[in-house]
């Protein structure tokens, strides 16, 4: 089986990330009677009707982040630290968040709930740092240079939205959604940008390296 091209990696990354908001919106509609999105965390959707879909959502999000990290390895001549931060975030936002459920708002904390919350917070912070790191990386990579400034703007916006979470404790769910929407939109935009500028050749890389060099990353 031939390796995925850069365009295929970008398409897969975009599709995987897109599953997360699609599931969240669907479960908000399904659970609209018992769930308050302004107050409750996104993860609490896993505890209600159809909540098993959140396992799919978290695993898909983690896969999308990992695919984007792989894509950066395929298309950038540097940036190993940025890639590995994204790989770590993929594990925390994916399997760690999927298989350790959070606790309901107002209920006593449990071990699995604490693990989920700590993993989610760590993933949020790592993705935020990765956005700043990626902005600097993209300025030094010819193909990615056009996405450097937008990435910095996204990172600044994500920083502001992240601090909304402790600033609005009575509307935690709303503040969390603003932050998550910010970094999800960046992941989607980065994947879409990579797909747009990727060469059509199956094994080509965005840096213009020969096909034989496409296995690095």
UniProtKB/TrEMBL annotation:
Keywords assigned by UniProt, alphabetized: Membrane, Transmembrane, Transmembrane helix
Source domain of life: Bacteria
UniProt xrefs under InterPro entries: DUF998 (IPR009339)
Stretches that traverse the bilayer: 50-72, 84-101, 121-138, 147-168, 174-194
Any Pfam family the entry gives: DUF998
Keyword Membrane: yes
Name assigned to this protein: DUF998 domain-containing protein
Species of the source: Nocardioides agariphilus
Lineage, top ranks: Bacteria, Bacillati, Actinomycetota, Actinomycetes, Propionibacteriales
């Amino acid at each position: 089986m031939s390796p995925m091209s850069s365009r295929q990696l970008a398409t897969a990354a975009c599709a995987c990330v897109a599953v997360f908001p699609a599931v969240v919106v669907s479960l908000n509609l399904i659970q609209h009677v018992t769930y308050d999105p302004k107050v409750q965390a996104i993860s609490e959707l896993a505890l209600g009707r159809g909540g098993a879909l959140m396992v799919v959502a978290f695993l898909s999000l983690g896969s999308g982040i990992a695919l984007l990290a792989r894509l950066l390895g395929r298309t950038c001549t540097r940036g190993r630290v940025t890639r590995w931060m994204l790989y770590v975030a993929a594990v925390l936002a994916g399997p760690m968040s999927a298989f350790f459920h959070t606790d309901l708002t107002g209920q006593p904390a449990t071990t699995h709930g604490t693990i989920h919350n700590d993993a989610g917070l760590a993933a949020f912070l790592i993705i935020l740092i990765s956005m700043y790191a990626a902005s600097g990386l993209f300025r030094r990579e010819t193909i990615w240079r056009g996405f450097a400034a937008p990435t910095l703007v996204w990172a600044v916006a994500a920083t502001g939205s992240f601090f909304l979470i402790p600033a609005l404790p009575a509307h935690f769910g709303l503040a969390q959604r603003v932050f998550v929407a910010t970094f999800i939109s960046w992941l989607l935009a980065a994947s879409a940008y990579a797909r747009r500028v990727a060469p059509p050749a199956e094994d080509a890389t965005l840096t213009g390296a020969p096909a034989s060099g496409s296995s690095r990353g």
